[in-house]
Amino acid sequence: MTLQFDHFVHLTPDPTKAAEAFQKLGLHAVQGGRHENLGTYNTLSYFDLSYVELIGIFDEALVKEAGSVKYSLRDTFIENNLQSGPQRIALRSDNLQELAEHFKAQGLEVNGPTDFSRTRPDGTLVTWKLLFAGKQDESLHLPFFIEWDEKDNERLEDLTARGVIAPHTLGDVQVDGAAFAVRNIEETAALWSTLLQLEKGASYIDEEWNSKVQRLSLQGGDIVLYEPLGKGVVADVLEAGGERLFALQFKGATQKVEEITNALYRFV
Question: Where, by residue number, does the polypeptide cross the bilayer (predicted)?
Fold first, then answer.
């Protein structure tokens, strides 16, 4: 069971304006498409096959209907009262059925795999499967899981040919990792490394954010857990909204932290 970082989901009132904010930073961003049966649409910014999904709502009723699926992305939207900001990350698998059986054996509730699609601006269809897993009353949601119907090399070739994947004027920027604020870093790292079968990476102190840090290693971008040592950004996140995903970190360029509709984008 091998997982890779796939994408970071950022709910925003206007994905086009959010994409323009990315472009002002020197990050390539394009129109994505519409999830016709789910009530959402998106713009995208790719870093190889890891990407940011800037997602907006065009039909709240459809979102709420889709949100009835437990542990789903739109369930998270509803739980967060449709507020802008980071929502979840998706991890990529080439065998969601095997992953579902693994999670069931670990005592998790599982929904899926289920087929999904969206229509590109040119009318072509993109298809994939999703898997959602979790436990009742968990304070920090697991990532959700995606299996694309195209192989990675096929997607990379196709997205490059379409201009969706293209160089960033800011430089050779890559995803470093997705940042989660947690109350007990050892406990969360132990649980997630077991459930997701990930190796623990570097552990260190982040002085700028006044936090302990534990990485879980993933190709395409790590899971980066932060536990506050005192006052600071991470403590503020926990106080405002509890344990949650709050930022995406990039590497390959020097830039100050940018906040775009309640999401932090940090260059490390």
Answer: none
pTM here is 0.96
- Gap between the Cα atoms of 226 and 211, Å rounded: 6
Look up residue 69 and give its two tokens.
């699926």
HSE, CB side, 13 Å, CA atoms: give it for residue 261.
23
Tens digits of residue pLDDT in 212-233 = 999 999 999 999 999 999 999 9
Name the nearest CA neighbour of 126 among 144, 112, 146, 145: 146
Say if CB 6 and CB 259 are below 8 A apart.
no
Rounded Cα gap, residues 41 and 163, in angstroms: 19
Helix (H) or strand (E) holding 251: strand 244-251
CA distances from residue 118 to 37, 84, 226 in whole angstroms, order as listed: 9, 21, 34
DSSP per-residue letters across 222-249: EEEEEEESSSSHHHHHHHHH-SEEEEEE
Candidates 13, 15, 49, 43; CA nearest to 30 is: 43
The CB density around residue 135, as the number of other CB atoms within 10 Å, is 13
Residue 223 near residue 201, CB atoms below 8 Å: no
| Spatial distance between the Cα atoms of 241 and 138, rounded to a whole number of angstroms | 14
Nearest CA-CA partner of 126 in 61, 51, 70: 51
DSSP 143: P
